[in-house]
Amino acid sequence: MRDRPYIIAEAGVNHNGSIACAREMIYAASEAGADAVKFQTFKAEDLVVESAEKADYQMQSTGREESQLEMLRKLELTNDEFCELKRVCERSGVEFISSPFDLKAVDFLSQLGLRIWKIPSGEITNLPCLRKIGSLAQKVILSTGMSDLQEIQRALEVLEYAGTPRAMVVLLHCNSEYPTPMCDVNLRAMETLKSAFPDLRGVGYSDHTSGIDICIAACAMGAAVIEKHFTLDKKLPGPDHSLSVEPPVLAEMVRSIRNVELAFGSGIKQPSASELKNIAKVRKSIVASRRIAAGEVFSEDNLTVKRPGTGISPMKWEEVIGKCAERNYEKDDLVDA
């Protein structure tokens, strides 16, 4: 990961189980300027029990008739399809990331050559999975939705004890309501995470609000990573499409974040190269307010301050007052005493 905000386009399960749709999502994320595309690797039978209920937002978007297990079966991709998606990412110049939801998925993604491990909020208490990922000693991005500092501390301890030091971990502040109400975003929690865990690689933000404003705000607060759900079409059937952004909005988000990144600057307060040329035009000089004869004493009655700033600075006003004019001045002549 780089010092600039690392932008993850969260494809998740918005491919609806279609490899063709997943490929198109990679192309769209690359075109938008994202650094990575993230999918989810799971087998429905290994993820939920048959009686597991859907979340409220999933019921609203996919109905109450089918179970969570039935819904997830439709959203699976095969291992061969993930292999292809990784190749498509490599050709498209974006990082392939996929969140594992069980130990078999960790093994498969490790063999696939995954370089960055994204642990979703729901797995922050999955000790076996945390331990296995931690043993790989690679970069980890850990979402912290629904968790408190004690749970985050415990997850970091598991990763660290298994072999992944905190200096290789980025924590993402996250709210796991879909979509997240603005009043519950709590961006200041990013500062809390930075303070509580100062030895991290960084702190970022995973967004579930309906727009892109909060992602840009998080970037302005110094987020190391920004993650945002996207879809090819918000009207597609499936649990996450309605809360995701479409490619044009994703591209707008990336552009805005990159602009904020550029605007950070060096922190040194000095005139920039672009504004130096304006100094003489907008600052002022000491000038004659009326005709002044040689030998006349400069005073507040015959001097004033006007643009341009190519003469004596008004900051030297007290040094000029009381001196004698060495030549004649017409009104608005720059004083050269």
List the helices and strands and how they pair.
Elements: E1 6-12, H1 19-32, E2 36-41, H2 44-47, H3 56-62, H4 68-73, H5 79-92, E3 95-100, H6 103-112, E4 116-119, H7 127-134, E5 139-143, H8 149-162, E6 169-174, H9 189-196, E7 202-207, H10 213-220, E8 225-229, H11 247-264, H12 279-282, E9 285-288, E10 303-306, H13 317-320
Parallel strand pairs: 1-2, 1-8, 2-3, 4-5, 5-6, 6-7, 7-8
Antiparallel strand pairs: 9-10
Helix pairs in contact: 1-5, 1-11, 7-8, 10-11
List descriptors.
8-stranded parallel sheet, single chain, alpha/beta, TIM Barrel, 337 residues, two-stranded antiparallel sheet, 2 domains, Type Iii Antifreeze Protein Isoform Hplc 12
